[in-house]
Design a protein that fits this description.
By secondary structure, this protein is α/β, with parallel strands linked by helices. The protein has 15 helices and eleven strands. The site of pyridoxal-5'-phosphate (PLP) has 13 residues, from helix 6.
């Protein structure tokens, strides 16, 4: 491929991306076609011969565009997804174009350097212990996998068992304490790590999804042997935080490792207005967080933070023969993640932190939290609409019709969500919360303004009036 051709195909991609991005704010905040229609646009047998680069790009754009979701839309409030900010996207384009294999500092010096500095910045802005090591991974799920691998190795080591040498079979059983409303991905991680349901004690939670302290202490007093505690900074429905100060103190007195799932909520620590929620979080032993949620980097991006860097390396090092000299360890990203060959995820993270700065992050997170309170206040005034949570962060749980657990309330809530998705002014989804079907509003996209929220409140109210019995 000559220079001119290469230039053309890269510009073609950039132009298609710009066209897509330009129409998002005014487009329907949802895909135009279903999965089955998207599939029929792609469905073909394996081609026998190839086609020209510009034809591939043109085909890809034509086939994919109708089925694209719009998480970067200003009125996209579904799930808990960031909006892939243009600066993060631009840095991510370069990451692909530069084509670095970021496993170690010799293979990719700048990629390793960007991670080293972005790691330091993240610890600074989140006010986590400075000795903490950071693995740049694909998201909070794999971040928890990394952290809990380090936890498993450490608590077993304290019990006199070297898991790297002896494996998990026959090891002293580890007990895991976890809140009843933990994120389902944590259970997936436990399964990867060889924990079964028999190892897990679920601690009962209050109406906001936070572990009840009496239940937690009772569970703690009731188990012996190696112990890991998993807490939440930002419950996925309510945004609520476990009481970290007390939990960390009690757990550490028992010799336990405390891991925090802070996929989006950990960012509250970067915010003068919200940091009271996350007091004591810094006393934990490990933390999982996403870049592709509140930091607005493109998918995929997450961070595994482990206070004990040695435990982190012990759990993730590929093989002893790969172990570099001690003075090089800190420079090699590959010692803190499961992969060998890997994307240079430090570049988009560095770019977003450089773009927003401490003040920009605080402004954005506070704006989202303020807009969430606006949603709750205004919708809470509408007859027949109930706000089911105290809005402490960016998550609002809404129920239509009967607020108690009835099929009518479930049905009305489902119908409102369905009509809202058909309308397309905004995107909102449903969730099951404490045995009820609810609508969840996540304000987390960089592009969302007060106007977008007012417009969305208008549509929700209109549709509720149409649906209301
Ligand atoms: C999103 C989320 C996860 C999973 O994160 P991924 O980036 O999708 O792997 C885990 N916990 C919480 C609280 C989340 O919101």
């Amino acid at each position: 491929m000559d220079d001119a051709r290469q230039r053309e195909v890269l510009l073609q991609a950039a132009e298609a991306a710009l066209r897509f991005r330009a129409q998002v704010p005014n487009a329907r905040q949802r895909p135009h076609v279903s999965y089955h229609e998207a599939l029929s646009a792609f469905a073909e047998e394996m081609p026998e011969t190839g086609v020209a680069p510009e034809d591939v790009m043109a085909e890809l754009v034509t086939r994919a565009t109708p089925g694209l979701q719009t998480p970067m839309g200003p009125r996209f409030f579904g799930w808990v997804m960031g909006g892939s900010h243009p600066v993060g996207v631009a840095a991510d384009w370069l990451t692909s174009a530069w084509g670095q294999n970021a496993w170690n500092h010799a293979a990719a010096p700048s990629a390793a350097a960007a991670e080293t500095v972005a790691a330091r910045w993240l610890l600074d802005v989140l006010r986590l212990p400075p000795e903490t090591s950071v693995g740049f991974v694909t998201g909070a799920t794999i971040a928890s996998f990394v952290c809990l691998s380090a936890a498993r190795s450490t608590v077993l080591q304290r019990a006199g068992w070297d898991v790297a040498q002896k494996g998990i079979f026959g090891a002293p059983p580890i007990t895991l304490l976890i809140g009843d409303d933990a994120h389902p991905t944590v259970y997936a991680v436990l399964q990867f790590l060889g924990f079964g349901t028999a190892n897990v004690r679920r601690v009962s939670t209050d109406e906001s999804g936070v572990m009840k302290l009496e239940a937690f202490s009772a569970a703690l007093n009731n188990c012996d042997g190696p112990l890991i505690v998993v807490t939440q900074a930002g419950q996925m429905n309510t945004g609520a935080f476990d009481q970290h100060e007390t939990i960390c103190a009690l757990a550490h007195a028992r010799g336990a490792w405390v891991h925090v799932d802070g996929a989006f909520g950990l960012w509250a620590r970067a915010c003068p207005d919200r940091q009271h929620l996350a007091v004591g979080v810094e006393q934990a032993d490990s933390w999982a967080m996403d870049g592709h949620k509140w930091l607005q980097t493109p998918f995929d991006s997450g961070y595994a933070f482990v206070r004990d860097a040695e435990a982190h390396r012990r759990a993730m090092t590929i093989a002893p023969s790969y172990l570099p000299p001690v003075d090089e360890r800190d420079r090699d990203p590959g010692h803190y993640v499961p992969e060998l060959s890997r994307r240079a995820r430090g570049f988009p993270t560095w770019a977003m932190l450089r773009h927003l700065g401490r003040a920009g992050i605080a402004e954005m997170v506070e704006r989202h939290c303020r807009l969430s309170r606006l949603f709750a206040e205004r919708l809470g005034e509408v007859p027949g609409i109930t706000i089911m949570n105290e809005v402490v962060l960016n998550q609002t749980v809404v129920r239509f019709g009967d607020a108690s657990a009835t099929e009518t309330g479930d049905d009305l809530t489902r119908r409102v969500i369905e009509r809202l998705q058909e309308d397309g002014t905004c995107f909102l989804g449903g969730a099951s919360w404490k045995g009820k079907w609810v609508m969840r509003i996540s304000v987390i996209g960089w592009a969302t303004t007060e106007d977008d929220v007012n417009r969305t409140i208008g549509v929700i109210t209109r549709i509720w009036n149409e649906v209301t019995p």
